[in-house]
Amino acid sequence: MPIVRVEMWPGRTHQQKQELAKAITEAVVEIGKAPADATFVIFEDVAKENWAQAGTLASDE
User: Which residues are catalytic?
Assistant: First the structure.
């Protein structure tokens, strides 16, 4: 049962998430040989003030 977590900044549309979920699932099925109905994709929108790179919050850029 593969679980793929996608964390990204807010702002993607429902349609974009649908397309990503489909593409990720297809890749897991093709490459990982897992059944589609056992593959889970979880999206988590992370606010820029909760995301830092190289010691700098993304909201400060």
Answer: 2
